[in-house]
Amino acid sequence: MLWLQENGLTVAISLVLLVIAFLIVRSQIKQKRAGRTSCGAGCAECPMHGSCHSSSKQ
Q1: Of 1, 4, 27, 32, which one has the fewest beta carbons inside 10 Å?
Q2: Which of 53, 35, 36 has the alpha carbon at shortest distance from 44?
Q3: Are 42 and 48 in contact (CB under 8 A)?
């Protein structure tokens, strides 16, 4: 119990950061399943336009 009292704030901040990371990962997975990319823009101006999409779409 003493350990929890001494480290309670660290544990609370760590839990908040873990929840935020989980929500970000979940959002990215949902976007990928929906077929959306993270950039949200067209590929014409993107320097990575030939690398980020699979060859089956081209």
Answers
A1: 1
A2: 53
A3: no
Quick check: 31 and 37 in contact, CB under 8 A?
yes
Q: Which two tokens stand for residue 2?
A: 């003493």
The structure tokens listed for 7 are 């480290």
**26-54 pLDDT tens trace:** 998 998 888 776 666 667 777 777 776 65
The token duo for 28 is: 């990215």
Full-model pTM: 0.61
Locus of tokens 């990928």: 32
Q: Which two tokens stand for residue 51?
A: 């690398």
Structure token digits, residue 12: 């609370």
Q: E strands, 6-54, where?
A: none
Spatial separation of the C-alpha atoms in residues 28 and 56, rounded to whole Å:
22
